[in-house]
Amino acid sequence: MGKHVLLIEDEPNIIEAIRFILARDGWLVHTHSNGASALDALQRHRPDVVILDVMLPDRSGYDILADLRGGRGPAAGLEGLPVLMLTARGQSKERETALRLGADVFMTKPFSNAEMRDAVRLLYERRADAAR
Amino acid sequence: MARSIPVGARLRARRLDLEMTQAELARRLEISPSYLNLIEHDRRRIGGKLLARAADALGTDVASLSRGAAQGLVEALRLAAGMQRGDGREGEPASAGDHERAGPAGARALGGAELEAAEDFASRYPGWAGLVAAQDRRIAALERTAELLSDRLTHDPYLSAAIHDVLSAVTAIRSTAAILADEPDISTEWRTRFHRNLHDDSRRLAEGSQGLVDYLEGEGEAENAGAAPQQELEDWLSGRDYHIEELEPGAGPIEEDRLAARIGALASAREGFVTGAGRALGARWMHRYAADASALPLAPLRASLQAHGGDPGRIAQSLAAPLPLVLRRLACLPEGLAGRPAGLVICDGTGAMILRRPVAGFSVPRFGAACPLWPLYQVLLEPSGAMLRVIEQAGRMPQRFTAYAASQVRRTEGFGGPLVAEAVMLVLPAERGGKDEGAADAPGAIRAGTNCRICPREDCAARREASILGTGGPAA
């Protein structure tokens, strides 16, 4: 079974670019564009790494992250997933909020492809190490 | 009061600064050292040609020796020293806590003895003193800019969405371009798709950037096409000092048709509103103004104002007029209120601003909520309530204002329809010495701010969020 990323993002061309670069590194990339049903998608896919945008239609990425870390109800069993938060707002307050809610990595748009590749690989390896 | 330094002491201080002996200066002035000693201790007067020669010998000018530094410079230094406290509590000794709160630059509050030395400092080192004063003015201007930008970045929904769109387009372009540049073996299908994406995103970026530039440039101009309709209205009203003479009834009421025509002409004038939304909002305010003017014409308002010394409560009582109406009318008097500029803030039941007329020293946020301690909001808690308070606005230069606030609740859509609340606040700069007509019975001053993000008062029970001034707020 391959390494699996779920990208929760609503900008189609950003989705396409991230999907392309990660697929080249051997990742299986699923995407989801809606905030309200993001937890359902996470339950369905159970990815190794989650890339989560903050500004999504219907629901904020922060709220999704808080539910995910809570691990209750529709988020049951998701609390340990590594999460990379993406945002167009790079203020320190945003970073603090993301990290306080339990994001593993906080990345500001625009990012470089190398940054994205490295961050996703790091999260995967960290999780794999913890599982050993 | 500023301590006045005698001319002899100034002369002596200047000589010592230059490390010149008394004997040397006496020789240059062609007087005896003992006589110079008497002058330096102000036991003999000095003036005329001798003072001019002394100034020349000491490399300064007569004015510096005879009058000391310009009083304006001394006042500027005192202001700069006093404002380092952050909360502007004059006359209180600086505590360790004050020092810690004094800001990232490590500036500390200056105590009484150091403040007393301001004139001495300005006399001895006018260049440095001027620099301190200029930097203090610069800091004040930058803080004001930060206040405005913070307000906009936080609360302007258009700006926030526009920046997000631009950054999203930039992100997509950067990633896609990097793929095309760094990945040599892309299939033709993918290459074509990425080229198309680049084209779409670059166009989106160009349009988004242009829109953003138009919006921001418009903000800096009096007539801005990109501004919110409310700003258009406030700009238009500001150009008239918030008084619309054409809508005052004068000798008699204005017929409905003529009133509509006048408002239509005012709203569509070339030099007036820019957007349709601005014109519509302007017309709505003009109708309201005309109704206010009809209900409370200028002549009886002025007569009552003269009789009751500017107390809106008594004016309202004498004219049997609703207090909110009186406050709105007083704020729009062409001559000001007792010669003072009047500020006006109107909000609805949600606290959203309907109209702002700022007055110097009393900023009103354009977006988002203001300070919850303002009587404007307090009075909303009390339907048809009225409130008189002195407000001390926090800032580099805390100023006191007398605020009269009143609320009103209207039932709309007939019996059983929803209630619509509105509050009005008239703001007057408090007169020096605290003698403010109509405010004599005001309770203690409310220590308030503009909004939490730019308010330094960390001990405020109503604080919603941390201040960007780094002086308070809940822990993140």
UniProtKB/TrEMBL annotation, chain A:
Domain of life: Bacteria
Naturally occurring in which organism (per UniProt): Profundibacterium mesophilum KAUST100406-0324
CDD domains assigned: REC_OmpR
Residues modified as 4-aspartylphosphate: 53
Signal peptide location: none
Name used for this protein in its record: Response regulator receiver protein
Keywords linked to the UniProt accession: Phosphoprotein
Domain annotation Response regulatory: ranges: 4-124
Keyword Phosphoprotein on entry: yes
Pfam families attached to this UniProt entry: Response_reg
Record's keyword annotation contains Nuclease: no
Alphabetical list of PROSITE patterns matching this protein: RESPONSE_REGULATORY
SUPFAM superfamilies from the UniProt entry: CheY-like
UniProtKB/TrEMBL annotation, chain B:
Biased composition (Basic and acidic residues): 86-102
Region (Disordered): 84-106
Xref: Gene3D superfamilies: lambda repressor-like DNA-binding domains
SMART domains registered for this protein in UniProt: HTH_XRE (SM00530)
One example GO MF annotation: DNA binding
Pfam families hit by this protein: HTH_3, ScfRs
Record-linked CDD domains: HTH_XRE
Domain HTH cro/C1-type, first and last residues per copy: 11-65
InterPro entries the UniProt entry points to: Cro/C1-type_HTH, Lambda_DNA-bd_dom_sf, ScfR_C
Name of the protein described by the UniProt record: Transcriptional reguator
Naturally occurring in which organism (per UniProt): Profundibacterium mesophilum KAUST100406-0324
